Amino acid sequence: MAEDARILEERSTQRRAHLLNMAYEDTSAREIPLYPEVLPVPELYSLRAIPLYADANNLRFGVTNTTSQSTMANLKMRFPDQQTTFSIISDTGYKDLMRRYDPPKEVIYKDISLISHDADEQFKVVSETLNSVRADDMLAYVVQQAYLLKASDIHLETDEDGVRIRLRVDGVLHPIAEFTNDKYRQFLSSLAVAANVSTNSDQPQTGHINRSYQLANGSSVTVNLRLETVPTVHGMDAVLRLFNLKPELMKLDSLGLTKDEKAIIDDIISHPNGLVLMVGPTGSGKTTTLYSILNQLNNPERKIITLEDPVEYNIKGITQIPIDSTKEANGFADKFRAVLRLDPDVIMVGEIRDLDTAKTALQSALTGHLVLSTYHAGSAAAALTRMLDAIGDNPLFSSAIRLITAQRLIRRLDDHSKVAYDPDPKTLGWLSGVIATFPEHVPKPNLDGIKLYKAGSSPENPFGYSGQLAVRELMLMTPAILNELKKASRDISAQELEKTAISDGMLTMIQNGVIQVIQGNTSLEEIMRILA
Question: Is the pLDDT of residue 85 over 80?
Answer without folding.
Answer: yes
